[in-house]
């Protein structure tokens, strides 16, 4: 199911994103795009941070590969934070420190 690197899973289509989201009790989903410069800059940090917060499940979803489930995403990157299947927070844009702080808050 998708590519996996450490604690980071990549959803390769709409169905996989739905399944991954339901399987995780605490998760952060990074909605990005291959053509987005900021997304490409923050993705390696997102991957590294997935190793520092093992209680959280990290999921990357490319909005072009998952158009049905990402149709309400208006900015890339967008990070959604879930607890027990419910979205509890979101963050727009990059920023390594901002992302670290938000992950720390939710871990």
Automatic annotation (TrEMBL):
Start and end residues of each Thioredoxin domain: 26-98
Membrane spanning stretches: none
Superkingdom of origin: Eukaryota
The species this protein was found in: Nicotiana tabacum (Common tobacco)
Name of encoding gene: LOC107786629
Protein name: Thioredoxin-like 3-3 isoform X2
Database matches in Pfam families: Thioredoxin
InterPro entries: Thioredoxin-like_sf, Thioredoxin_domain, TRL33
Matches recorded under SUPFAM superfamilies: Thioredoxin-like
């Amino acid at each position: 199911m998708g590519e996996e690197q450490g604690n980071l899973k990549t959803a390769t289509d709409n169905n996989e994103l739905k399944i991954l989201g339901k399987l995780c009790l605490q998760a952060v989903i990074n909605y990005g795009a291959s053509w987005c410069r900021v997304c490409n800059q923050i993705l390696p940090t997102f991957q590294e941070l997935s190793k520092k917060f093992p209680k959280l499940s990290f999921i990357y979803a490319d909005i072009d590969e998952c158009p049905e489930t990402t149709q309400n995403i208006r900015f890339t990157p967008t990070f959604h934070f879930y607890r027990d299947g419910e979205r509890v927070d979101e963050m727009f844009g990059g920023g390594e420190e901002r992302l670290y702080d938000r992950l720390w808050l939710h871990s």
